[in-house]
Amino acid sequence: MNTLQSPAHNRSPRLLLIYPATHKLGWARYFQLPSLSLQQVAAVTPSNWDVTLVDESQDAIPSGKNFDLVGITAMTHQATRAYEIAGQFRGEGVPVIMGGMHPTVLPEEALAHADAVVIGEAEPVMSRLLDDFLCGRLETVYRAPIPQDDQIDVPWPRREILAGKRYLTTQTVQASRGCPYDCAFCTVTPYFGNRFRYRSAADILAEIRSFPRKLVIFLDDNLLGDPAKAKPILEGMAELGVRWGSQTSLRFAEDPELLKLVARSGCIGLFVGIESVTGHYSRLAKSSGATSQGELMKRVRDAGIILETSLIFGFDDHDQSIFEKTLRFVEEFSPSVPTFNLLTPYPGTRLFQQYEQEGRILHRDWNRYNHSEVVFQPKLMTPEQLYRGWLEARKAAYTWPSILSRVWKNPGRRFTNLAYNLLRKGPNDRLKAPAEGDVSF
Question: Which of 298, 354, 365, 425 has the fewest CB atoms found within 10 Å of its own CB?
Fold first, then answer.
């Protein structure tokens, strides 16, 4: 049990929430989305606390002298920077709590840098944690129960703490959590429930009505995962006349009526995971019906919805032929915006556990667990072959002929589609293949 000093009783306690940045973003920081998790932490913080949010992509890290407690969230690629920030405040005598995915899966590691760690969802435990802190009995671990029901009841995020910051939009919503699929490379199911859990449609629509503008971004892993729960949300948005985007699975397009409703509700873009075009992890073979994934993609595009597809290189059944196979797939089916990533075995996943047991994890430099660097030993090629194949495929997919071909084959929203492709082309053009032997793993 921790007996850290609580704040003076003649003023409100002060909580600083920090979202770490791993690199300088420049002008691109204005196209980012704010941390919804920290806004939700602020929402469940008792009203007697003064809360400040610092997003390091936009703000400088302040001195700890004006705060009684610091909370830092971290995904794996942010962990090293989060630990550096935590060390700064603890050096000033300010206690630090840490939460987010990385401290959830590696709490003992995080506790070497923090006074307390939240494991799992923060909303159920935050009030008790803060009360314990004020009473001088802060514990080292606060573990949220793994949800077993199919509903979420959380307060609306506190968007006013974003004042003075500039983002693509602050009108972000989370309608659901959890997932029944339990993929080996994902941490959602083990820590956030093995079913789709939704907020009530009425609560979601009321939140959207409070927005001053029409654009809404859903931050769900699979917004349309449970069509029965998603339909009331979609029908309500159709009446509100909003425009929205989210992430989901292509399975929803197997139902023509659901696809029509998604389009009618104002959907302008969806991000879907294809994962691999061949082999065990191919979602091309995971459709629950007889319709091919390529046909489902065409249906979505014909409905006027921009489709961004995520394709991953590095699975154990991938050899060097995977790059050409993937490029042929992109050429044939023309997803609006193809995205190529390197497989990243995150700690807390079955994939990480497998690779660690097999001695294939190359290092634990968390900064490099970012989908753009090889952090494990592939099975059927060298790390350098995987990296170079990924880089060359990215460049090939964003040549002018490839871009114009995709835009032409996507009849809806051609101007927006072109703009998205140009935003991807710039970073791809700046990628430079290293000289032979210069890639370190």
Answer: 365
Encoded amino acid at 145, one letter: P
pTM, to two decimals: 0.91
Q: How far is CA 9 from the centre of its chain?
A: 39
- Listing DSSP states for 212-238 in one string gives SSSEEEE--S-TTSSHHHHHHHHHHHH
Question: Model confidence over 78-89: pLDDT tens digits?
Answer: 999 999 999 999
| Residues pairing with 244 in the sheet | 216, 267
**Where do the domains of the chain lie, and which CATH numbers do they carry?**
14-143 (3.40.50.280), 159-430 (3.80.30.20)
Cα dihedral sign for 274, 275, 281, 282?
A: positive
Q: What is the dihedral of CA 342, 343, 344, 349, to 10 degrees?
A: 160
Tokens of 184: 């080996």
Per-residue pLDDT tens digits for 60-105: 999 999 999 999 999 999 999 999 999 999 999 999 999 999 999 9
Q: Which amino acid is at 143?
A: R
CA angle at residue 38 from 33 to 43, to 5 degrees? Answer: 120
Q: What is the DSSP letter of 251?
A: G
